[in-house]
Amino acid sequence: MGLSNGHAMDEPVPKEGTDHDIDETISLQEMMGFSHNPSLIAARYHADGSEKLLQDYKLRNKVLGTGSSAQVVLARGRADGREYAVKRFFKSGVCQEALRCLKSEVQVCLCVDHPNIVRLHDIYESNESVDMVMEYCKGGELFQHLENKGRFDEPVAARVGLQMLRAVNHLHANSMAHRDLKLENFLYSGPSSSSTIKLIDFGLALFWDPSRPMITRCGSLAYVSPDILRNTGYTSKCDIWSLGVIIFMLLVGYPPFAGPSKTLQDRILAGEADWDTCSMWESVSQDARDFVERLLTLDPDDRPSAQRALQHRWLKLAQDKQNIRSPALLTLDIHQLQSSLKQFLQSSRIRRAALQVLALGIDLQQVRDLSNTFLSVDQRNTGTISFSELKDAILAVQKHTGTNEKTPDSDEFNEIITFLDTYMHEKVTFNDFLAATLQIQTTFFEEDVRRAFNRLDKDQSGTISQADLRSALGDFVECRSNDSLLQESGVQLDNHGELPYDGFRKMLVESGPLGGPPTERTPSRGCPESTCPRSSSKQSVKLTSGEVTKRHQKRIQSGYWQAMLTREMMMTH
Fold first, then answer.
1. What CA–CA distance (Å, rounded) separates 14 from 271?
2. So what's the pLDDT on residue 486?
3. Percent of residues, the chain, with pLDDT higher than 90
4. Which of 228, 324, 332, 561 is 20 to 30 A from 441, comparing alpha carbons?
5. Longest distance between any two alpha carbons in the chain, whole Å
6. Beta strand 120-125 with 45-46: parallel, antiparallel or unpaired?
7. Angstrom distance (rounded) from CA 133 to CA 120
């Protein structure tokens, strides 16, 4: 009955049928249609395969996990010395269904952007393999933590549940379903019990059309929802049921449904959760039990959405007690925030592009205050923030602290949001927010700047040239020569009219300091600057709304993106 039954808990659900919205020809244009920040999609895809992977990362012998056709190994970035988890998928002998699932996993991982979801840094593909370079979470699985503790205290369970729901709500708000939520698929970012919870493993995740129910039976049996087992079609609310199972176990230490496979399925289909076996429920509050009961509602139509579940009294009370959602931005200086946003708005196109690249590769532990600020402003918990949310948050802090700092007027706020909202979704993504507020960060490391430079130095020459920018920025810039972008940097170019690293660093640090000059650190364990291999990338800069819309339409119509990702992308024809 207990958690020691790990293998039985992880028993897969027998599959029947295939979702009609997964096929082998899904293109990058379709991914861009779902993403709030299309510029970050092509940025991380490399068709150079394993050879380029080994230039950028040093793979270690430590295996973090294995699967039927994939292996996760530890790696170290050669440019920054940081540790990463690399999921290696080998195509040889793999069935068509597995390749379709891999394509769907790649699509979802490229489109998610949330502090409680593991970050995808790079994808390398060859004819033989696909390698996904992910954020390395050192704290281990939620399963391991629960197994060690036996059960979680309510405040801890509520804090963990809040983070899990935020991640799931981000997926659902963007028409994605995970379909394999379980204790093993949530990791702690660091060794501390207060570290951020991260959702991982999108091997069964997919984009879906709410007007067309999903039909594939999939997931881990002990966590799977009855609507999946019925074979009549299901929605993303299957994830809510799985979260109910997880939080049930966090609170009392044993699963709500157990037994041999047939018995287990019958109990799930009947909604017969085991509330009576363990006396531990007697010490659990009524609010907590009510919360779990609602998530385990048998009828998916009556089961709450992730958005609605986040409003439950149990989570609200826990947030108040733990000060999780104190008035937004209290940890940051209001003047700094407003100044940083305006400075980003006034920056040159090349500096904004560089900050986007920088934010994409930053270690989130370095900017934890910024991540918490983003989550605090995101009142709807969708993983994006709106103009009204940002303005309301600043006004709330001013009222709470009695600050007399002048608040930007509506026109100024609208201008800031328009520039942050690169693709006119009327929302600001997490990465956009980081790019615009990085200067608040007081500790900034040299390797972060070096990593961003490497991504823009496409030919690995040690300088950023006009050709590099044309290759790296592509269609993201206005119809002016890329040469003008270099001139906009405001720093001295070399004799060939190219931007060296020192100039790039000066542009980032001195053109509106990122919390002052970077703090020097012991050189990373990567290779020397002169031999350090470069990562390839494409990144956007901010345009006016009319220019953005026009460029976005042009890219889709011209098939520009199709050529970028469909070149041998998971092809099995």
1. 19
2. 85
3. 39
4. 324
5. 78
6. parallel
7. 6
Burial of 468 (0-12, 13-18, 19+ CB in 10 A): buried
Q: Give residue 377's pLDDT band: very low, low, confident or very high (50, 70, 90).
A: confident
- Report whether 37 contacts 432 (CB < 8 A): yes
The tokens of 332 are what? 């940051």
d(CA 120, CA 5): 31
* Residue matched to tokens 């157990």: 258
Kind plus residue range of the DSSP H or E element containing 377: helix 368-377
Residues in a beta bridge with 66: 71
Spatial CB neighbours of 495, under 8 Å, sequence gap ≥ 6: none
Q: Cβ distance 260 to 268 under 8 Å?
A: no
Helices (H), 203-260: 226-229, 238-252
Distances (CA, A) of 295 to 39, 167, 246, 248, 260: 36, 16, 10, 10, 24
CA dist., res. 436 & res. 291, Å (int): 37
Is residue 573 helix, strand or coil? coil
What are the beta bridge partners of residue 63?
73
DSSP 62-82: EEEEE-SSEEEEEEEETTT--
In a 3-state reduction of DSSP, which class is residue 21?
A: coil
What are the tens digits of pLDDT across the range 258-273?
Answer: 999 999 999 999 999 9
The two structure tokens encoding residue 316: 């609200």
Residues in the chain: 573
Q: Which domains does the chain have, with CATH numbers?
A: 25-135 (3.30.200.20), 142-322 (1.10.510.10)
Measured distance CA(359)–CA(430) in Å, rounded:
9
Q: Are strands 57-66 and 186-188 parallel, antiparallel or unpaired?
A: unpaired
Joined together, the tokens standing for residue 529 give 């600057």
What pLDDT, in 10s, does the model give residues 134-151? Answer: 999 999 999 999 999 999
Residue matched to tokens 């195509």: 91
Structure tokens at 336: 């700094």
pLDDT tens string 404-455: 555 555 566 666 666 665 555 567 889 988 988 887 765 567 888 888 888 7
If one compares 69 and 154, the residue with the highest pLDDT of the two is: 154
At residue 42, the pLDDT reads 64
Per-residue DSSP letter, 348 = -
| Locus of tokens 């350090």 | 532
pLDDT at 219: 93
Average pLDDT over the chain reads 78
Q: CA triplet 295, 299, 303: central angle to 5 degrees?
A: 35
Helices marked H in 10-133: 28-34, 39-42, 49-56, 96-111
Whether residue 207 contacts residue 220, with contact meaning beta carbons closer than 8 Å, is answered with: no
Active site residues: 180
- Residue 106 DSSP code: H
Quick one: residue 37, left, alpha or beta (phi over 0 = left, psi -120 to 50 = alpha)?
beta
CA distances from 264 to 13, 100, 475 (A): 11, 29, 53
* CA dist., res. 208 & res. 511, Å (int): 43
User: What is the secondary structure of 462-480 as a DSSP string?
Assistant: SEE-HHHHHHHHGGGS-SS
